[in-house]
UniProtKB/TrEMBL annotation:
One of its GO terms (biological process) is glycerol metabolic process. Its EC number is 2.7.1.5. This is Rhamnulokinase. GO terms for molecular function: ATP binding; glycerol kinase activity; rhamnulokinase activity. Residues 113-260 form the Carbohydrate kinase FGGY N-terminal domain. One of its GO terms (cellular component) is cytosol.
């Protein structure tokens, strides 16, 4: 079987990238074709995503990838993944032309999940269906921004807004529709809406009806490994004169990240650490019990019908938002590696541990002030210097990870003797060591690009370049990437 080349469009909450992958039975090589910033746009009516900008960057990046792949047989397919839960609303428009296939047009810029509007939506949903029942149906942890709460906040359950909306598409599905004209709901990301039944992995139409949502609000669910379609004719000039097949991958970035994690045994846990730290296990069966609900563990749909049994712990967001605050205050860029070095020197006895799960830390804004307020309320000393605050955040994130690992082991009845840390956080040695120390488990760090790797592996398997189960695909990662192991020091 030959080596094939694929382009992964991987959009994270703080940056996006287009990665070109050369994949074969003995080959896994990644090159970054493009990287661009992403973040909330503060509009008068709330926090939005600049999705048109992201689409433009993705298209330019794909053009770069096509050029880079040209001399080696070109690109076989494209796959898209992004953060979960957020969506665009579309209306059916009349006078369409060929560049608006199906006549579906985006109604306004999609909301950012950190927008505060969701509180009213939570109440509206739980009034109709209490949380304990919701959990039994969808198996999802409570996150105030799960799609169903956002839809309720948008007054889509009833009322005039609902009538105007023809369809809702999650972010990767929307970009896929813009690329190909075809609309599907990719299964792993659909599972984060709260509207997919955990047993059937299909839309829970009864739940949707009880919530007052139109049954056809989302398109048909399609599994990773399905071909969505070819890029539209109008895009050909941007893509080196070609039409590229778009393949559905685990379009939830966390689903792709776990495909790209070289889990060594079924007892190995993972932490996919970027903006969020997604801490948990890959399971064949969902765990939907009172105990898992109380510990706020989720059963998100994974690739190949597996379950991502995990919980969201606040991740590097706490650090990046702190640095952003200091940047605004001083007008100078802050260097995380330098700050982390200084943070390591802070004496252990001076380290304050905060509860990183406190909801006050979710919205963008002045993070040091919020940490200070938390400390005052809890009679803890406020970290007095920048290194002390950075150390407090790193150790507090690690403490959150350690607790989640214990919970995962207990709830799924697994030993959890090793933890794979992947994503951006795997480069943070202080965080990896603190996680090993606080959890008492070996932390195996890397690959940093697990998400792009997972995206590319599913494309390559769909193309017939690779075959087998996820374990077979992960073998390739084990052979091509060398992880760094952190052992517990106490
Ligand atoms: C990580 C992630 C996570 C979701 C959150 C909204 O990027 O997809 O899995 O909970 O974003």
């Amino acid at each position: 079987r030959p080596v094939t080349q694929h382009a992964a469009v991987d959009l994270g909450a703080s940056s996006g990238r287009v990665v070109l992958g050369r994949v074969g039975p003995d080959t896994l090589e990644l090159t970054e074709a493009a990287r661009f910033a992403n973040g909330p746009v503060h509009l008068p009516d709330g926090l939005r995503w600049n999705l048109l900008g992201l689409f433009g960057h993705a298209l330019t990046g794909l053009g770069e990838a096509v050029r880079a792949a040209e001399d080696d047989g070109g690109i076989t397919s494209v796959g898209i993944d992004s953060w979960a839960v957020d969506y665009g609303l579309l209306a059916r428009t009349a006078g369409t032309n060929s560049s608006a296939p199906g006549g579906l047009s985006l109604l306004g810029a999609p909301f950012h999940y950190r927008d505060g509007r969701t509180a009213a939506g939570v109440q509206a949903v739980h009034r109709r269906v209490p949380f304990a029942e919701l959990y039994r149906r969808n198996g999802l942890q409570f996150l105030p921004f799960n799609t169903l709460y956002q839809l309720a906040a948008d007054e889509l359950l009833t009322g005039p807004a609902a009538a105007a909306v023809e369809q809702a598409l999650l972010v990767p599905d929307l970009l896929g529709q813009w690329l190909t004209g075809e609309a599907r709901a990719e299964a792993t990301n659909a599972s984060t809406t709260g509207l997919v039944n955990v047993d059937t992995q299909n839309w829970d139409l009864e739940l949707m009806e009880r919530l007052g949502l139109a049954r056809g609000l989302f398109p048909e669910i399609a599994a990773p490994g399905t071909t969505l379609g070819e890029t539209r004719d109008e895009l050909t000039p941007f893509l080196g004169g070609q039409r590229l097949p778009v393949t559905l991958v685990g379009s939830h970035d966390t689903a792709s990240a776990i495909v790209g994690t070289p889990l060594s045994t079924p007892d190995a846990a993972y932490i996919s650490c970027g903006t969020w730290g997604l801490v948990g296990l890959e399971l064949e069966q969902a765990v939907v019990t009172d105990a898992s609900r109380e510990a706020n563990f989720t059963n998100e749909g994974g690739v190949d019908g597996r379950f991502r049994f995990l919980t969201n712990v606040m991740g590097t967001w706490l650090l990046s938002e702190t640095l952003r605050t200091w940047e605004r205050e001083t007008g100078r860029a802050q260097d995380l590696p330098t700050l982390l070095e200084a943070a390591e020197q802070v004496p252990e006895a001076d380290v304050v541990i905060i509860d990183v799960q406190d909801e006050r830390f979710v919205p963008p804004g002045d993070m040091p002030a919020r940490v200070g307020a938390w400390c005052t309320e809890h009679d803890a000393p406020t970290p007095a210097s920048k290194p002390a605050l950075v150390r407090c955040l790193v150790e507090s994130i690690a403490a959150g990870f350690a607790r989640a690992l214990d919970d995962a082991a207990r709830l799924a009845e697994r030993r959890v003797d090793v933890v794979h840390m992947v994503g951006g956080g795997s480069l943070n040695a202080l965080l990896c060591q603190a996680t090993a120390d606080r959890s008492g488990r070996d932390v195996v760090a890397g690959p940093v690009e697990a998400t792009a790797i997972g995206n590319l592996l599913i494309q390559a398997r769909t193309a017939g370049t690779l075959s087998g189960e996820l374990e077979d695909l992960r073998e390739l990662i084990t052979r091509s990437h060398s992880p760094v192991t952190y052992r517990p020091r106490r």
